[in-house]
TrEMBL record:
Superkingdom as given in the UniProt entry: Eukaryota
SMART domains in UniProt: ANK
Keyword Ribonucleoprotein: no
Entry keyword Repeat: yes
Annotated region (Disordered), positions in chain: 1-33
UniProt ANK repeat ranges: 220-252, 318-350, 385-418, 452-484
Designated name of the protein: Ankyrin repeat protein
Keywords, alphabetical: ANK repeat, Repeat
Coiled-coil segments: none
């Protein structure tokens, strides 16, 4: 039984939706009063210059008249945060003309896009980090390709330990002024959620110390742990696990746990952290193991099975065990490893009855089919539709597999399924020219009809496959056959306006009449 009670507990979150109308009006009036248009001094002709000059009133006036900031409803404090100017932030917060209540209203003001100054701290710190990473990448690229143009002073160093220190200083100022760490954006994310998603460990630690909720799901149902995993923020994942967050939380929107998310991204460092914390897969779900197998990640697959051997035969929501995913994509190494570890081969896919041979035949390798046969798979077994792996190989146009199944395994090239369709019928319908040629060369009957008197050449003419028509004719297809409605291939080609097919069929008809 899932236990998400911790996440569903009554929150102390302060949100614009829970503030009374009067409280929000008081905040807006406070900001509006500070944003009244003022005249600026001659030396302050832009926001940046006003910041440089430390002219608070000029800065307020310029922010109030700036189009971009007006459109978002930004306060001067929010702009100072975005500009990473701790001195201006300090000046605005320590204004002697405002009392403590007004200061708290100012620091927690929510603009039109739903952001507070604290939210902007998280965003700004992320942009500062990304800027430094970009600078570093640019420097290294120059150093490798244009070493003669690089100066020592160009080196921004690898992600520096002091990255974001300005923003952390601003965060401290905001928290000391009464910033609420639990105010949410319209996507149900607080400042901590933004910091966790973007991998800002120092900020995560500071916000956690200030009382941030480390487990609050966003609008998509993902917790900070899950968003940190998705962005491969190993340090943040380690911090959250060490802080005791619930690693078994299930996102009810997609029935996913943090462990499954880590498996999907097949990121070994994060998988190791979750395994060390005791995370495990659940049966009848899209497990972490399913994800690592589907991604052909052998190392991650081994890691998961060493931790939880029984997961090898867990089924996903579609009823497939991990080995089916390996067979489907013919991931030879992973397939062989799963067999070595005792993967069951007697499962079939619910609804179709396909066994591993059917799944592999569509696009897999002959070598892998031989491995499955050695493990006990019978390639002559039919599924619920009466089809053998040969029918699947024909659907997939897998010429090598078709040849192997007919010549070496003895499957009947003209075997009909429950609908009376032969592998050739399926190959033509799926437009597999190479597979069709292989089947015909192996003796497939080009004139075998389905119960409704539909011949392979009817399908080719209706779909519009001139090369397929020519190939079928070369192998004895009759162009005058009629379906149950009395239509010949030529009639279908005309109805579907398949001009090239018409021309081929008319040419053969004329030759026949002429002879």
């Amino acid at each position: 039984m899932r236990n998400n009670d911790k996440l569903k507990k009554k929150s102390t979150t302060t949100s614009t939706s829970t503030k009374t109308k009067k409280q929000q009006n008081d905040i807006e009036n406070s900001i509006n009063n500070s944003n009244k248009k003022l005249s600026t001094c001659p030396n302050c002709y832009s926001i940046q210059v006003a910041l440089k000059n430390r002219h608070t009133e000029c800065f307020k006036s310029l922010v109030a008249t700036d189009k971009e900031h007006k459109s978002r409803g930004d306060s001067p404090l929010q702009v100072a945060v975005v500009m990473q100017d701790s001195d201006m932030v300090s000046q605005l917060l320590n204004d002697s003309t405002i009392d403590a209540q007004r200061r708290q209203s100012m620091v927690n003001f929510v603009n039109r896009v739903g952001f507070t100054a604290l939210h902007y701290c998280s965003m700004t710190m992320m942009m500062e980090r990304d800027k430094r990473l970009t600078e570093n990448h640019s420097y290294l690229t120059k150093k490798i390709h244009f070493p003669g143009r690089v100066k020592k002073l160009d080196d921004p160093s690898l992600v520096r330990a002091d990255a974001g220190l300005k923003t952390l200083e601003i965060v401290e100022l905001l928290l000391n002024a009464g910033a609420d760490v639990n105010i949410l954006t319209p996507t149900n994310v607080d400042a901590f959620g933004i910091a966790a998603e973007t991998g800002l460990l120092p900020l995560c630690k500071r916000l956690a110390a200030a009382g941030a909720d480390l487990e609050r799901p966003n609008v998509e149902g993902d917790t900070p742990l899950m968003t940190a995993i998705a962005n491969q923020n190993t340090e943040v994942v380690e911090f959250l696990i060490g802080s005791g967050v619930n690693i078994e939380y299930v996102n009810e929107r997609n029935d996913e746990t943090a462990y499954q998310r880590a498996g999907f991204y097949t990121f070994l460092p994060v998988l190791k952290l979750l395994i060390a914390a005791g995370a495990k897969d659940r049966d009848v779900s899209n497990t972490a193991l399913h994800s690592t197998v589907a991604s052909n990640k052998l190392a991650a697959t081994k890691l998961i099975l060493q931790h939880q051997p029984e997961a090898i035969n867990f089924r996903d929501v579609g009823g497939a065990s991990p080995i089916f995913l390996a067979a489907q994509s013919s991931f030879s190494e992973v397939l062989a490893y799963l067999l070595e570890q005792g993967a069951r081969i007697d499962y079939t896919v619910p609804g179709t009855g396909d066994n591993l041979g059917h799944v592999l035949a569509f696009s897999g390798k002959v070598g892998d089919m031989k491995v499955l046969q050695s493990a006990g798979i019978n390639v002559k077994t039919t599924n619920l539709s009466g089809e053998t792996p040969l029918h699947e190989a024909a659907r997939g146009g897998n010429s090598e597999m078709i040849r192997y199944l007919v010549k070496e395994c003895g499957l009947d090239v003209n075997m009909q399924n429950n609908s009376g369709e032969t592998p050739l019928t399926l190959s033509v319908r799926q437009r597999k020219l190479g597979g069709t040629r292989e089947l015909l060369e192996l003796g497939a009957n080009a004139n075998h009809p389905t119960p409704d008197q539909r011949y392979p050449i009817h399908n080719a003419a209706e779909i519009g496959l001139p090369k397929m028509i020519s190939l079928l004719i070369e192998h004895g297809a009759d162009i005058n056959v009629q379906n149950s409605f009395g239509q010949t291939p030529l009639v279908l080609a005309i109805e579907r306006k398949n001009k090239t097919c018409q021309d081929i069929l008319l040419s053969i008809t004329r030759q026949s009449i002429g002879s």
